[in-house]
Every structure is written in structure tokens, then in C-alpha cells.
Amino acid sequence: MASTSATQNDSIRLNVTSQSQISGESTGKKNKGKKKNETNFSVQSLKPNHFRELFSGLMKVLEKPLAEDLFEADLSVEDSGENTTLTAGQALFILLDLRRKVCYKLPARSEEKRMPFLLPVSSHGFEELDKVSEDEFGHMVCNLIPSLCNHLESVSGVFEEKRQECLGPRNRRVLIQCYENTLEVIFHGLSWRGLRSDLPLLKRVLYSIVRRFSSELTEDSSIRNLIKECVDYLKNFKNTIADCSLQSRVGLMKILFLLASFESNNPNEEVASMLHSFSTSMLKVDWGLCLDQSLSAGKTNELLTSLLKMNVQTADDVLKCAAHFVDEGLCKLGAEDNSYPNFQKSNSHVLYCGLLEIMADQTSKIPALKARDEESVSIEILLKWKDCMKVIGVIGRLLREYHSRQNVLSSLKSGKVIIENFIKNGMPICEKLFHQYQDDIVGTLKHLQLSTRQLQHLTCHSKVTQDVVLAKHVPPLKRCLESLLFSVKAMLTAHDCQEAFWLGNLKNRNIQGEEILSQLTQQRSSQEDLDATPEYEEMSYSESC
To answer: Domain map of the chain by residue range?
Structure first.
């Protein structure tokens, strides 16, 4: 490997003969005087899987501490003749390889939910790793977590003492990469599915972190206390991580959020509140002013999406928090008084799509009506639906201003899910409480109508633009809209309120609400009759029954 690293700065010049030259020489007529094309080839362009796979047991080298001078090797050796410490460059080399291995062998839960028609993850470069079982490799990574915490403390100490300013940009980048990869390995180790199914192993791993700074707890302590102490330990890195990269901040947040999810049945409110305030402060910091400028726009948007979802999920009231981001974020994009400077019009899809996914998930969590439920419980469920439809209606109206293709696609996907959830769980509540709370139900349906009307416009937009990706979501969405229409009509008919519901002409319109020109021209050429048979039907509600 030493020879490999030594040759990474060398460039190999290869003379490649083009196919046109070869054909010209064979015919003897064309390309006779052309010169050979020269192409530069650099070893640095090769990926790690082009080289020999490292032995998995090499990760045990990370059990050695980092040298006091992080960039100079310690001359002291063990009895076996090996160095007793690691330099930052040596640790980074092993961490990069270990990160690739854990991402392949121990994927996070979100990475495991792959679509069945997608190609499986390539095993090229992991042939030796495939010979090791997932349980064996998972135990190896979990046993390494205390040593990784040592490396976190060593690197954090450099940033805490402001010594990184004297290191130079290259060495500083090495330390930041050590921080990033260490956090990523710890995250994948703790998110290993075998750890959740084995409570004694989980306690042992958490205790290996807690015993580093606390002697009050034991391995037999409750999982709740162990998690709380681990969170208290890791949140101490918040101050020093501000001088690192954005990936390091999000990586630490992901670990804290993962620890809080271990007790999802009875979450610790104190831990959730800390995570919410931490993520809020990170979202309010202008990332454009950060020292790390190496991230691409796509990676930055991915980090923003992760932070947004973690922030909303750790809030006391998820719906209220989502409404806050709609009012203070989505409605104020590009404004001077925007509380979240990272969300701009250029990346409006991050906030728009994220909020729609959150609302679709929130509607799926609203409980269904049960026969034994009391009236107070039913009223509470109805009010949740009403509040959800208000927020969704505001998001739908903002699509006219932020009508990028990503936002349109997200609206088609999430809109179908929201309508299906309402038909399944919301309509039974409306049917049960219609006589007693008619105003609230009609108000909920009116808020819903704003969204369905916008979805109808999106179906027309998808056909006019002839976008195949958008158009394939139109048929199932139209079926959902028709089911909703007939469900509402049946409910009002059952309660003798037919006059509160009528069908009107719904013209084909684009996202801006403007009538599509092709339909207008067709109507003028045939007859100027505004009551012509429409392609879709619009439902309207009256407040008096």
C-alpha cells in the first residue's frame, strides 16, 4: 500500500489512437496526416475498490490512541516492534476504508428500504468482507466504539484549544475528515439492526461509552438512564463541532437522534427537547458563511433535508412545528426577515418537498375511528384533520410561486397519500360527527378542496408538458380524487344535505390557474357555451344544510 500511495501523485500519459484514425489508415484515403490523440490518466481518479481489499481485522489498529502530535509519528514502540500510537493521516486511511465497509455491511434503516426493482448494491471490492457474517462484523464495530470515542476527544481537543489555526489548510482538512468518518462509523454501528434485537448487547455498548466519564451507572442500569448519559456525553461535542464541517454537525445530530429512538415507546422528553433546540440552532445558522466550502449544492440540500425532518420529529407538537416552517420559512423565502437563511428560492424544493412528506406521514399517524371511542376522542381526531388540511392547503397554494419539477412531482406523490389517508380514516369521523359539528366538518372539506383543486391543475399540467415521470402519477391520483368526490357526496346524501353539494364545471388549467389555451380555442370553434361537458368535475360545499 505504501507503493500505491507513493504513486498517487504521478500521472501516466497514455497515447490512445482514435477509432477514426484506425479506419482512415485502413482505407488509405482519409485521416492520413492526423496526429495521435493524447489523453491524461491520473491514478488519483481511481476509486478504492480498484485496489486490493484491506483485511477487516485491520480496524483493530484503531484501538491505538492518536499521537500527541497528530501529524508526526511517535517513535516509541511496543514489544512486538509496532508503534504505540497513530497519526491523523494513518487513522484517516483506516477510517475511510472502515466507513465503506460499514455502509455496505451495516446499512442504516433508511438505506435498507430500497425499491424492489432497483439493482442491488454492488459487492465489487468487498469479496473478502462477504466471507464475514453480518453478526460477526457488527460485533467487531460495536467493540470498536469506545476507541472511536477516544479519537473524537483527541480531534475535538485540537478544535477546542484553537490549535487547528496553526496546522494549515491541508492538515486541518485531515482532522475534519477524521471527525466526519468517525461519527459516520459510530452511527452505522449503533444503527445496526442486530443491536436493537439484542438488549444485553445494546446495554453493553452504551455502558462502554458511559463508563468513560461516569461511575454511577452499571451495565445492569436501565436503558433509559444509559441513553440519557450517552446523550449528555455526546452533546459536549456541540461547542467544538461548530468549527468543523457541516457533515460533522449533521453526523452528530444523527447519532443523538438515533439514541433517542431506542426508547420510541416512552421517549425522554428532556432528550427530545435538547435535540429540537440543537437542530433549530443549526438551521438558523447561515451555512454559506461556514468555513467548509467543499460541499456541493446537492449534498448541502441533503443535509438540510435530514436536519429539517429531525427537527420536526423531535418537536412537542409536530403539526405546530410544520406550520411554523410554512409561515416562517416557505412563505418568506428570499425575504430579509427569513428566520432560516439556508432556505432560499434556489433550493425551495428542499423545504417544500420536506414539509409535504412530513404532512403525508402525519396524516397516516392520525388514528382511525374505533367503535368504543368516546365523543371527546372523536372530536380531537376531527380537529387534527382540520389543522392538517389548513397547513396542506397553504402549502398547495404556494406551488404557484415555487412550481419547479421537483415540487410538482412531490405534490403528486404526497397528495395521493394524503387523500387516501383521509378517505380511509378521516371520512368515518366526518360521517359520525356530521350532525353535531357540521361547521367544523364543512370547514375541513373546504380546506381539502383547495388542495384537490390544485391537484386537478397538476394533472392537466403533467399532460400538457408531456412529462412521462409526472404523467405516470396522474391516473392513480385521479382515481383517488374521484373516490373522495363520491365519498363526500354519499355522506351528505345520507344526512339529507344534498343542497350543500353540487358539481360544477372544472376547466383545464395550468399551475398558475390560467385556462389552457387549447381547450379555450376548441370551445370557441365549436360553440360559445360555458356549460359544455367538462373533462373533470369540481365539487363545492355550502355552509347551510
So the answer is: 2-46
CA-to-CA separations, 512 to 329, 330, 396, 403, 457, in angstroms, rounded? 21, 18, 12, 9, 8
User: Position 243: which residue type?
Assistant: D
The region of weakest confidence among 14-28, 140-154, 191-205, 215-229 is: 14-28
> Cα(390)–Cα(489) distance, rounded to whole angstroms?
21
Q: Residues for the chain: how many in total?
A: 545
Q: Which of 344, 484, 325, 480 is nearest to 412 (CA)?
A: 480
DSSP 159-188: HHTTGGGGT-HHHHHHHHHHHHHHHHHHHH
Rounded Cα gap, residues 421 and 367, in angstroms: 10
Closest CA to 105 of 128, 79, 71, 87: 128
E runs forming strands in 316-397:
none
Tens-place pLDDT, residues 377-415: 888 999 999 999 999 999 988 988 888 899 999 999 999
pLDDT per position as a tens digit, 234-246: 888 887 776 677 8
Cβ neighbours for 273, distance < 8 A, ≥ 6 positions apart: 314, 316
* b (16+ CB within 10 A) / e for 369-401: beeeeeeeebeebbebbbbbbbbbbbbbebbee
CA distances to 296, 377, 380, 387 from 290, in Å: 14, 48, 44, 37
Contact of 362 with 322, CB cutoff 8 Å? yes
Q: How far, in whole angstroms, is CA 452 from its chain's centroid? A: 27
Residue 460 cell numbers, joined: 392537466
DSSP-based three-state secondary structure for 342: coil
Q: Which residue's C-alpha cell is 438512564?
A: 225
Single-letter amino acid, residue 283:
L
| Helical ranges in 61-168 per DSSP H | 88-105, 109-112, 134-160
CA 501 to chain centre: 41
